[in-house]
Write a structure and sequence with these properties.
Oligomer: single chain
Strand content: 15-25%
Number of domains: 1
CATH architecture: 3-Layer(aba) Sandwich
CATH class: Alpha Beta
Largest sheet: 7 strands, parallel
Structural class: alpha/beta
Number of strands: 7
Helix content: 25-40%
CATH topology: Rossmann fold
Order of helices and strands: EHEHEHEHEHEHE
Distance between the termini: 45 Å
CATH superfamily: NAD(P)-binding Rossmann-like Domain
Length: 239
């Protein structure tokens, strides 16, 4: 019987991150869940839920991935004894803003969390990754399309997709796969959606489980898949 995978998820204690954690927990993995803005009580509640979902071990690593990537990765690798799966999930969807009103500080903040932090976390994780390891970046349909008044978000996620492809090519000789998942309209925690169902061919919104199962596929069943972007969008990119 093979050893359980060792998985690090940034932004892993709420919303999509928690869905990812629970899906991997069902595989009996050892998990390191990074969190920053979530209160400690919420993080601890999520940790217990993930353990109940089947994880063999769950370690909480608090820290800001934009400024503490090296420490977060080092503590995660120490707790897990290495890293087999890295999921760069932490990110931000800023409010819509016309370009004329978008400040440099806002633009830099979005790029910092959506692009530079995956860069830093991945670079810090390289010494702990080996042949057969998997890196999964959470991109967005907004990295493949241009959405109204979301220039900072569009740029950050399209750049993350390019980073994914470039890393896939560079790391392939080491046996490390790098792919991205691009969610479309996802309904998490019963939130209101800004996209009407008439724009989604399948006629319903996606959820965290839809994204999580794509990540499971990439981590367990796709050793020959690298440099790809999987859109999970109910067909919205077709319209």
């Amino acid at each position: 019987m093979s050893e359980p995978k060792r998985v690090l998820i940034t932004g892993g204690v709420r919303r999509l991150g928690l869905s990812l954690a629970k899906a991997f927990a069902a595989k009996g993995v050892r998990l390191a869940l990074n969190h920053h803005s979530s209160p400690d009580e919420e993080a601890e509640t999520s940790r217990r839920e993930v353990l109940q979902a089947g994880a063999s071990e769950v370690t909480l690593i608090k820290g800001d991935v934009t400024t503490e990537a090296a420490r977060i990765v080092a503590e995660s690798a120490k707790a897990l004894g290495g890293i087999d799966v890295l999921i760069n999930n932490a990110g931000i969807l800023p409010p819509q803003r016309p370009f004329s009103e978008l400040s440099l500080a806002e633009f830099e903040r979005t790029l910092g969390l959506n692009l530079l932090s995956p860069f830093q976390v991945t670079q810090a994780a390289l010494p702990f990754l080996g042949k057969g390891s998997t890196i999964i970046n959470l991109a967005s349909l907004g990295g493949m399309q241009i959405w109204k008044q979301r220039i900072d978000y569009n740029v950050s996620k399209s750049a993350l997709i390019t980073l994914t492809k470039a890393l896939a090519r560079e790391l392939a000789p080491s046996g490390i796969t790098v792919n991205a998942i691009a969610p479309g309209a996802m309904q998490l925690d019963g939130e209101e959606m800004g996209v009407g169902l008439q724009r989604i061919p399948l006629g319903h919104y996606g959820n965290g489980e839809d994204i999580a199962q794509a990540a499971i596929y990439l981590a367990y069943y796709a050793p020959y898949v690298t440099g790809q972007v999987i859109a999970i969008d109910g067909g919205r990119s077709l319209t």
